[in-house]
Amino acid sequence: MLCAPAGAQTLGPDIGSAIAPNTASNTPAVSAFECKAPSEFVRLDQPLRHTARRLAANESLTIVAIGSSSTRGAGASSPAASYPSRLAVELTKRFPRADITVLNRGVNGEEIEQMLTRFPTDVVDAHPDLVLWQVGTNAVLRDHQLQPDAALLREGIKQIKEAGADVVLIDMQFAPRVLAKSETPDMEDQIARVAKERSVDLFNRFGVMREWHDVEHMPFEAFVAPDGLHMNDWSYACVAKLLAAAITEAATRPVASAAVRSVH
Fold it and tell me: What is the pLDDT averaged over residues 105-132?
């Protein structure tokens, strides 16, 4: 198992810049809550065929996590607490005989357009079997028009598929600064619509975190960093655990039964 971070990034003044390590991630308030989410938020609709073949053949598995600061790990106490690092640990627990590499290709402050410029080197050249693509937050925070992002998202999905990898989109975080933006519901709808249209999976991070707050009654301080935007150690670890379980299920389910369920 290996989680390899991208090269060191220069932190600028943009929205996605990293913040000081969160020291509240292990507070008693967090320890009182269980890491869980309803299955409809974490089940991946599409089977992960490329991932499944690699695991079934006991071949090495390469996962690229691309995105902005919440992929890079802003708000975490260390790089080891980012979601890609925690995901590598969780997947290795589930597939102890597999050689699993998770590459962290998050860059603070980026939007879809900037990520696409990195696809040739940071995604395609890594020869991934699975790409986790976190999108949406920075465009909303900057009040940018959303429609162009839909076309760029489609192009990115096309490139990932042409590279022979499975695709899982990861939507925005449910956090105060995101919720304050009027464009947030439209961006969430747009990401879900493109995922369905292009028959790729969506990990509903927004829905998972909303469940923590609205149903489990967790205060934002328990799973959001002090800046009101980024996640903290607890939420990064929990998302990684839920995502690992979703990947495991989607990569091991009988494809025929998945096809039958999708018809009804």
Answer: 97
